[in-house]
Structures
1.
Amino acid sequence: MKCLLSFLGVKRMQARSLVGLSFRLLVIVLVIAASTRAQYTANIQGNVGDPSGAAVAQAKVALQNTATHISATTTTDAEGGYRFLS
């Protein structure tokens, strides 16, 4: 790296500054990328019941993202509960 930097006319102090700046920019990009990813995750859960309030076991529950048209299905448990994990 020293040969490359001297070939480009970069002095030692400038090289350290350039490396430090590059590292800071990399950290900033990674933090922004991680926070962007966090905005698109969620878990959805609930319970299915009949009109009298009793749990409905083995009911099929469907979920669809209207923006992307991606869908998922699940079946309720013995207590009528369901969960969609991202």
2.
Amino acid sequence: MKPLSEEHFLNILDEAHHQVFEGKGEERHGHGLCIEQQPWKHITDNVGTGFVIGQALKKLMELKAFSNPEQYKSWKREALGAIVYITMGIMYNDSLYEEQFQSKSELPD
């Protein structure tokens, strides 16, 4: 088993970043648009963060379909997608709530 480390953790987050801005996310949803103008943002504006949470849950549920080692790349792609959608939810709420407070230190717990 590969040793687990902070570097490994950061590499996974970097892969998720790549998926959004250069990989599958850019190909299917980005089309050269900045993240603020992409469909996920417009949908979330209209229905709330339940959308991105639902998308993340869908991705996590799809992991069951990739149960053997030969399907690891597909499993990882879906897992990274879940990370991406959760991150989008955090970004959305950060943006929404930070407007109501002057600094991050004023945000309620």
